[in-house]
Amino acid sequence: MYYICESEFVKMKKSFLYILFLIVFPNCFCQGTLSWESYFSYYEINDLSISSTSIIAASENALFSKNLTTNILKTTTTVDGLSGQTISSIYHNEVLNKTLIGYENGLMIVINEKDGSMLKVVDIINKQLPSSIKKINHFMEYNGLIYVSCDFGIVQFNLATSKFGDTYFIGDTGAEISVKQTAVFNGFIYAATSLGIRRANSTSTNLVDYNQWSVVNSGDWSSVETLDSNLIAVNSAGYIHKYNSGSFIGFLQLSQSSTDMRSVNHNLFITTPSSVYVYNNQMALIRQISNTQVLDGSLSFTCATSNGDVISIATKENGLFNSSFSTSASFENSMPSGPLRNSIFALQTGENSLWAVYGDYGGDYNPYPKDSYGISKFTQSGWLNIPYEKVLDAKSLIRVAIDPNDENKVYIGSFDTGLLKVENDVPTYLYGKANSSLEPIPNTPDVWVNGPVFDKSGNLWMNNSQVDNGIKVLKANGSWEIFSTKSIINDVSSCTFGRMSIDKNGTKWMATINNGIIGFNEKENVFKKITTGTDTGNLPIVDARVAVPDNNGQLWIGTTRGLRVLTNVNSFQTENQLTTKPIIIVEDGLAQELLYEQFITDIVVDGANNKWIGTADSGVFLVSSNGQETKYHFTINNSPLPSNTINDIEINSRTGEVFIATDKGMISFKGTATIAKENLNNVYVYPNPVRPEFLGTVKIAGLLNKANVKITDIEGNLVYEAISEGGTIEWDTTAFGRYKVATGVYMIFVSAQDGSETKVKKVMIVR
Question: Mind listing the domains of the chain with CATH numbers?
């Protein structure tokens, strides 16, 4: 466990993010004994490749393959060692059994399919070039070398040795030029570029000399490909050309610009957003597939290929479709279960489900342009995705609340039309200005609802931005009640609300963009405000993003410039002015403020009262209950996080699994800090028995908080003792860390802190 102090973190950010050599990644990304799970979307497919048995698809930042014999789907994600950056191209070499992945930022990863090991190649990233022109567009193999087409030129890469060769800057006078694709034809290398098709003799020993590259045809070209005895090119306008007598001659205008062209098994596949055209090696059209034949006219194709008699079409929003190449059989959708999108904006967990929404707003709470996305629900059986067409035209869905008394009822706040109700997985009702007490922003149709949260009585509280009556509650009996916030907010028309929470006293705590934190308790209609200044709350800035009470009655507040803590929520009843404090830690003998100047997006309290803190650009921090110890700081560099931009964090209180939503995908940390139980009736031990191949820890779950747990061998010799923090503890199957215990039955004695309850369990260890 460690803490990266602010000064160290700034240094890390300023230094380059990637090392200057290759790193071999193991098959499973782990940090010590930490356990991770990935929940990526596979709806947007950027590229395809084939092996002897499979179709390999690259989604935004993950891979999956489908075995055409067994139909088994296999995924590869950041948990396995991939980067969270956007994939732009993939290529599989069957002889070496290696898969090469290219990214928009210039990163390359080589996967050795024999053992799953990965090699991260950062030479292109480290080139002294603008970061905007390092995108990898295409891989072409010729004579044992891979020619990597990039937005600045061409790079040679030896897949067998994992070493780079020369770099070709083939623009005029050796300038950078965007190369979209290369092909070899009759002894020449041809490059489709943004400034013409250029070629050079493949046997030349000095291809780094731009003078070796001559312009064959001018213009902007999207692709060039060899088809047996033909060389075909397509320009950016979608005009197909054939090479003949020293130049490319146009012969067919496509109805749209092409998104991909490739030669497979003596056939040429040209893909446009709405159609796939398949030509034989005489350039005769043998098949044309429109998006309406696959699904409907809304489908957008990205590329297509074939493997044997299977034709595969990748789409931008609906995954992969497969069908028979030789017949007109219907297309089957093939992709792993996953959410609709990677950029999940908000989450909410119940005991048996997790809900995700994708509408968002910027740092200024501006939702425009409004998002037309659906909703996703995850359970043990997988993902259920509800498309936008079924959410009653509600756009910019930004926050979720699950009814604690009925998990089949879910409410979702919108920065568009109000509050959406989902019942039994079906959107059934949209509360708006015409049918509820929710109000639109004056002179607009917009009804902005954020922070929906249930109280103990089953009433749903929410805030309604930029109107006089900023707090609304939908009561359990279906009636509405409103509360004016005009007395506490300086300028109602400019004040947008963020998250809301409710403490043990029923006080509602609301984050605002320019009025700090507002506390409200309806019992006496009392409002109190926490803002900046030593006499008015001591926040570092008035732009607060989250305020959450912990298990000890403290209020943890995250702002766009750091962290503050209100030491006791009870002070809302007794103090006229609530005042917060920073958490001061000592690092290397120096006192400093925890998370100084960090943009905090979310704070979540786990069952052991630890705090999970999400940030806008620095990943996730897990700090101890009092903030004095930073247990972990997870970033893209030391964990499977696909991005350092954290949108939301949620914890399943029953299992302790921590779900982390970023702008590039969601992963989870399988922790043990579950919520404490009210009794010991449901204490359980897992795994049980512990078999020789198991390398993890034994969990004793279902505990009371501060329960005493003792483990002895069958003869009564004590081998482990601990006091629980939350509902779960771990045992590493050692005798107080000295040595692994032997095969046998071990007794687990659990007792409440006051001795009022006891429980005895057994666990079998097999070495």
Answer: 346-670 (2.130.10.10), 684-765 (2.60.40.3110)
